[in-house]
Amino acid sequence: MTNNKIAIQDTYGERFQYCWGCGPKNEEGLHLKSYPSENGETCTCQVKPDEKFTGGVPANLFGGMIAMIFDCHGTASAAWFAHKNKGLDLTEDTIIGRFITAHLEVDFLRPVPMNEIVTVTSHLEEITDRKAIITMEMEAAGQPRAKAKMVAVGVKKEM
Question: Are 113 and 61 in contact (CB under 8 A)?
Fold first, then answer.
């Protein structure tokens, strides 16, 4: 597969490129990037949170940002897994189908420190024609920090 150098979010259609968390065309956004693994079985996102996103406990990431990272990475992962399920590769010419969150549950395991690279890895649990169930783990400084489970659905053309 020739997909590990292309960010999934960079293959979103024009109208889907303005998400604050992951949209490549949102000038004030975070521009999160998710990449399929070499074998296509997982997707990974890395981010180093800015200190302005600290939570109620100083020097730790705000819980809403943790959920947002899972949200953006999970929907990108769902798009990739659906694309792969159709037997397709991710190329510079790909316009990938967009997914949105139907359900997201987050388990906060321990605080996420600031000034550390945060890595989120996703796995496909189940896929149908329009729905994907994604599980994700977040780690920083070599320790698990949070985990999530998402139900993502494909965007209909009229949305």
Answer: yes
* Residue 34 burial class via C-beta count within 10 angstroms: exposed 0-12, middle 13-18, buried 19 and up: buried
* Triad 75, 79, 85: Cα angle to 5°: 140
Yes or no: say if 113 and 131 are a contact pair by the CB < 8 Å rule: no
- Cα distance between residue 89 and residue 60, in whole Å: 37
Whether 74 shows a pLDDT value over 50: the answer reads yes
Q: What pLDDT digit, counting tens, does each position of 29-48 carry?
A: 899 999 999 999 999 999 99
Query: Per-residue pLDDT tens for 92-125?
Result: 899 999 999 999 999 999 999 998 999 999 999 9
